[in-house]
Amino acid sequence: MYRPLPTGPIALDCDVLVGTWPAQADIDLSPEKAAATLAEADVTGALVCSARGAWFDDVDGLAETLSLAADRPAWSPVVTVNLRNALRAEELLATASNAGVRTLRLFGALQGVPIASPAYRHTITLAAAAGITILTDGDVREIWPAFAGQGLRVVFLDVHAYHLADFILLAREEPGFVSSTRLLNAPDSIERLVGEVGAQHAAFGSRAPLHAIAPSTLRLRHARISAEDRATIGGGWLTDTTVTP
Amino acid sequence: MSPDYDGPIIDVHGHWGPWFFAMDIGSVEENERLLDYYGIDLQIVSASEAVVYDAPGGNARLDAVFAEHPRLRGYVVVNPNTPEVGRADAERFLASDRWVGVKIHTTYPGRSIASPQMRDTFDMLEALHAVVLVHTWGPDVLDLAALVADRPHVTAIAAHAGATSWDGAIEAAGLTDRLYLELSCSITDLARVLRITEQVDHRRLLLGTDATLIDPAVAIGLYQSADLSAESRELIFWRNAAELFGLDPRAGENGRDHRNPSAVKEQ
What we know:
The structure holds 2 protein chains of 2 kinds.
Chain A: E1 13-18, H1 31-40, E2 46-50, H2 51-55, H3 58-70, E3 75-77, E4 79-80, H4 89-98, E5 103-106, H5 108-111, H6 118-130, E6 133-136, H7 140-143, E7 154-156, H8 164-173, E8 177-180, H9 189-197, E9 202-203, H10 214-221, H11 227-233, H12 236-242
Parallel strand pairs in A: 1-2, 2-3, 4-5, 5-6, 6-7, 7-8, 8-9
Chain B: E1 10-16, H1 28-38, E2 42-47, H2 48-52, H3 55-63, E3 72-77, H4 83-93, E4 99-104, H5 116-128, E5 131-135, H6 140-149, E6 155-159, H7 166-173, E7 179-182, H8 190-199, E8 205-206, H9 216-224, H10 230-245
Parallel strand pairs in B: 1-2, 2-3, 3-4, 4-5, 5-6, 6-7, 7-8
Helix pairs in contact in B: 3-4, 4-5, 6-7, 7-8
């Protein structure tokens, strides 16, 4: 087998979860496990969100996320909104903003909320007004209209290599649209994206520790791109706009 | 898995040819580049054209590729809607040592593993004593185990190990000792690789990458995430495949240059 080459740390993982995951409750999603996984992979910073907010309670989830991040300077907290009850979104985002949170993560696909729902529109409008960067799950081919034309910074967490053409078409028109690298897993997906629209449209994401981190780190570290582009994807402007100072 | 494994590698799930996605991966030089980069000694491939469109046409075009590429071996793609055509291709190509097994997809032919057409196809494979790589995605991996269990001269590899139904794959592997699993898949759930490597006999696990459709980093990274002994690494990365297909990983060494460190470099 090849020997992975020393390409230095990855500055930021935009897709890290802690807490528990009902469908895979046997997997350790503790903050200690997340920290150890990132450290072993030489990933030095993370946008971290508690799964509690995704599955059960967004207010308590934010409190949990803030508490975890307070103990770990390399972690930046991410707030989420329960799209099944977005009546609390405005207050929740204000609380998060006052605490220095600069990133909102949406779990609409997980929560079974249609992209055309008022909850999405309300929450995205609030995020736009606050200048918050959005991380979102879901099929980019279906959900993109809700985010387009508003000057938003949006990281689509589930863009698959099979859908790269659609994402590139979007990115040509939307300077703030970014794809996580997690599923850009064809031998030339990252290279193609960088070549077509630039490295600023990609961000390293692994979904650790729910998912194995090595496939994502290996793919980025061996991508045939410049060191500058690799650094951009591994942090870059996303760090400037999401990491809590 | 330790990242410094430097033993032989046999990839039991590869492809040659273009796909209909935004990927520039269709030339055999891309296969060669990835073999060099990841140190893969032998790769068993099917023609993408044969998988998604024209099985006999794609098989024939793949046959012409082998002469110049000694690290590649072939799967004869059989469309379960035309088992007699598949039989003719299998009998023709498997007579050559460059072709080592049969590949069956379910999506493009539109036939499930539990379909009558697939039963007929497996009856044909039984007569050929074939090793067959079958696309599994979801609970159909259990249907594959049932087909194999009823046919004592067929050995199958569950491609993607059931993907979303990895628990079904674990159960399937317990139903017959002639069912192997390979884990190539975009689904990188840690639970999937941990539970499979914990609960399935390592003599029944194989490395499949799905390259050139998917970068080998995914499958290799998945196995890196499991706590495997050196012995298990040897089994999964080449020994099981060598025994199953009767392959010597050194057989393709005329085309191999990955021992040259300059073959692996950042750009």
